[in-house]
Please model this.
Amino acid sequence: MTANLAAITGIGSVSPYGPIAGLIPPCAVEPESITTWKTAGLRRAFLVKPFRPADVVPGLKTRRLDRLSAWALVASSLAIQDAGIDMSRVDRSRVAVVFGTGFGCAELTEAFFESAAANGWSGTDPSPFPEGLANAPASHVALWHGLRGPNITVGSKGFAGESALLQAASLLRHGQADLAIVLAGDTLTRAVYEWYEAAGLLSPACHNAELLPETGGFVPSEGVVALVLEPAGRREARTYAHFISGRCAAGGNAVETIRQMFGGAVPGLTICAGNGAPCAASFTSALAREISGPSVDIVPAQAVAAGLADAGAFLHLIFALSSRPRSGQVLLLGTSGDGGFAALLLELP
Amino acid sequence: MVTGVGVVSPYGVGLDCLQEGMLAGQCCLAATKDVYPGFAGTTAAVCGLPLPANGADSRYSRSDRMAMVAARDAVRNFDCESTALGESGVFMASTVAGLSEIDPGIAEDPAAWYGRGGLARAASYPAAHVAEAVGEHLGIRGPRCAISAACASSAMAIALAANMLLDGAATMMLAGGSDALCPFTLSGFSSLQALDPEPCRPFDQHRKGLNLGEGAAVLVLETLAAAVARNAGVLAVLRGWAMTNDAFHSTAPQTQGNGLADCMRLGMEMAEVSGDEIGYVNAHGTGTPLNDVAESKAYETVFCERRRPIPVSSTKSYFGHCLGAAGALEAAITIVAARCGALLPTLRLTDPIESPSVEWLRGEVRREALPLAMSVSAGFGGSNSALIFARGFGDGEFRSDRS
Model:
């Protein structure tokens, strides 16, 4: 069953739980008050606590980088460590990096606008410009680990993470890479937070510490998760899950498309529903119920993963795997919130 | 199979006007002063961009609008009754995306800036918005994917879309890129001292930097079976593609062009062609001191065993560097070259970099049959991409039913 499949053999993350190699132990995390910028009244979010990347990955220099690049470097290093791969023994021209993000390096993009606001467009500070490009995190991962295979930064409304995993699996399938570091993540900046706020997307819990994060809307989150994806079968590898197939579409009959992935009947299954677009958890759960029969478990998204919006899929996947699903197959469902969907079918070892 | 090409360029809308302008040696670069106070340089802008249906909506950026117009142009010959378009997918590239719609006021007080009308405009900021705009505009219900990999982005969008066709994710993919001129990128490249204030001179010993341009290009890619089933014309065949990374520096290319050379070799391996069979390379050729030297070394590495030097030109000398759209626009130009048997020269190339394995095309357009041509792209972050196109079916006729 695992022949020709891709296996997830390493996980690393930088999230509100901190920098962690492997699965995240199941425990709740509370939204924190934002102190990075001045706010009128309480503003809460799931935030990554400040840490020194060099304390986690010795020798890492991240001073001029966007936090997204720094976290990508830490998460990728932890994932490689978790996979037990000695990169010095790998043909690094055959290793791909695929990064999924909604907003890219928003922090340094905003810094460049700040520089223009202060000095005019003719007096901008050059340093944030190239480091603010969306592909900077993936290129830093390649640079740090010496990875010379395809280096791709993708986005997709509601499911940047799922899209990254699909592209990485495709590179392996077509022999364009032998191993892929697949990442998904975003940072929370003032401009992003206040955009969510102005668009009316936030949960009342962002402004009221007494309320639960699941109270309507969503509580924004931040972080980067990295997965090591490689062909199944490496003897010393510990496999978290096999990637079997996946689909994403902007519309059409999601139920029918997903049933086709199973060849018609849907077997015993765990559906991880609710990642993707903010406020879309109920849509995804409804879709999950429609797809499924009575023998299906539905694992709802945790608020901290839903808050990561487009890039939340891998955090959601970690939580789903940490919850020890009982069936052999897991369907990770995402939605764009307007009829679009992503469905990734995984098999547990 | 490439069964459609849509273009928005400083020459106007459509492949025909791009082809006509470039074959006539028309340069679209012009002195520019009004982008922001203090800027004086050379750019190439798209004038009179037609508004697509619903395109006036403030949630669409200029990059979105150019992409929508290019995509509509790419499918202009489609049968309205066909369901193929609705079932297809989109893979669009952009590095600027909605940055053109945002001004420094957002940095001072985002909430106030959103309140002054910025909310909808800022929604176009993610690169994925360009793919969404194209998908919505054409009613595409398949996968809508986006890539942002600096200046190699749209060549990589074409490569990844081709992978998706092989995967069966769709039977038709619209793939390309779109990027608008805006103060953000002009100021950024200016602050890095990468701009030539005069029209650029790629591969010249006296080159001083790049000029920025804008535009969009969208290729319709489909499987042979799908093209035949809908009796589609075949403009070109995408024979091979490859992507690599230098893993060398954030902004500078690897000095010997090793990553780019590996990329070209992998593309030729996939296409199952030798260096002797490639008739023309449309280069990345930005005109910056570092890029052009590294790139010429890559050609030396890959083509040193050819029987005659490889003909190479940079068409950024016609309308500048269109960033995330450059790879797709240059793919379109490479298809034009193969279609017309026309090797386009680099403009203003008087004193080329010494490179014995390269024939730097300059002067007049050279006419010769061109069965296979390659388009090469590179970008910040060390990304490289190579696309190899074969001429479409038939000589001068591009209908698959007449091949």
Remarks:
- The domain at 240-394 of chain B is CATH 3.40.47.10 (Peroxisomal Thiolase; Chain A, domain 1).
